[in-house]
């Protein structure tokens, strides 16, 4: 099937219509994410990001539906109760930006979205709200670091999961100063532009160094990593329980994106690979043979047990730098620092 933006929008509309017919308890359905851009495909794949608002607590917070190897639905489910104070969404680093940035409303039972968007969008770009969103993400990154430094898990796989999550939150903490937060597949592809927009290009380069050091990788090594990653992904997605983001329908979504990025941006490709590979091996049995190649890769890039303490020290220093930049941005934009 030839995939175009019109095709994706048609699928989104048909899905919303079907869901609304099935349940009268849905309040709103809207489309966010890459399908609203002019170039939604990465590596010939994409997901269709739908948000469904329910009048009560949904059964599951997130749902994946396979449509083909190249396309799947990624549906987030929320209760209306989460939106009852829409002004608070101005400081939410994820929900707020996606509401503000004009999602495509596909179903709205009582003009609910118009009210939510108006209340959220008012003063949304005022510096105090921008900075609040950035600091929320920086705080999450700092909390991840604190957990790793002072209450570490005995399972190194979980530690690396936390480390990568801290990197993602740290990068997005400064990225949201100039736009919406960056999503998983395009994170290190877009981050240099956000850092440059702040006049701080080193922020992106330093984050990449925290991820992989100064390692240079041949095509043969990359292909080997891809094979081992796929083995881990296939194992975890075939288990009875697994994280929703590791649903089998997302195999090509990640692997083809990483392969496409490898051609021109190896760092961005490695981010996608390492993020999902680590999450995959963290959810397989501790004696699974798929863990060993991941451990060898961690050793190669300095994320193994023997080097992890020094990498945590570097992360601490990086978070200090991000926090200082946020403080300076606030001062430059007239935001009065909070005093305890």
Automatic annotation (TrEMBL):
InterPro entries: NT_sf. SUPFAM superfamilies: Nucleotidyltransferase. It comes from the Bacteria. This is Nucleotidyltransferase domain-containing protein. It comes from Anaerolinea thermolimosa.
């Amino acid at each position: 099937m030839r995939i175009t933006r019109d095709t994706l929008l048609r699928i989104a509309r048909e899905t919303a219509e079907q869901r609304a017919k099935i349940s009268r308890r849905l309040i709103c359905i809207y489309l966010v994410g890459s399908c609203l851009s002019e170039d939604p495909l990465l590596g010939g794949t994409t997901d269709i990001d739908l948000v469904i608002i329910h009048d009560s607590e949904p059964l599951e917070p997130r749902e994946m539906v396979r449509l083909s190897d190249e396309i799947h639905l990624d549906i987030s489910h929320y209760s209306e109760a989460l939106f009852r104070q829409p002004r608070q969404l101005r400081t939410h680093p994820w929900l707020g930006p996606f509401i503000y940035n004009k999602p495509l409303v596909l179903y709205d039972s009582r003009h609910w979205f118009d009210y939510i968007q108006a209340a959220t969008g008012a003063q949304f770009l005022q510096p105090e709200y921008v900075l609040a969103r950035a600091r929320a993400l920086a705080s999450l990154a700092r909390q991840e670091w604190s957990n790793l430094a002072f209450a570490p898990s005995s399972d190194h796989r979980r530690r690396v999961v936390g480390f990568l999550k801290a990197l993602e939150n740290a990068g997005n903490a400064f990225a949201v100063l100039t736009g919406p937060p960056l999503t998983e597949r395009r994170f290190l592809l877009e981050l240099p532009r956000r850092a440059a927009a702040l006049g701080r290009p080193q922020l992106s380069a330093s984050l990449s160094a925290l991820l992989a050091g100064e390692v240079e990788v041949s095509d043969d090594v990359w292909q080997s990593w891809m094979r081992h990653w796929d083995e881990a992904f296939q194992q975890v997605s075939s288990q009875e329980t697994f994280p929703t983001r590791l649903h089998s329908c997302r195999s090509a979504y990640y692997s083809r994106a990483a392969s496409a990025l490898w051609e021109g941006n190896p760092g961005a490709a490695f981010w996608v690979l390492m993020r999902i590979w680590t999450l995959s091996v963290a959810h397989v049995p501790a004696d699974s043979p798929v863990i060993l190649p991941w451990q060898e890769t961690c050793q190669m890039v300095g994320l193994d047990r023997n080097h992890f303490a020094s990498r945590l020290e570097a992360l601490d220093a990086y978070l200090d730098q991000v926090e200082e930049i946020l403080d300076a941005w606030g001062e430059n934009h007239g935001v009065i620092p909070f005093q305890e």
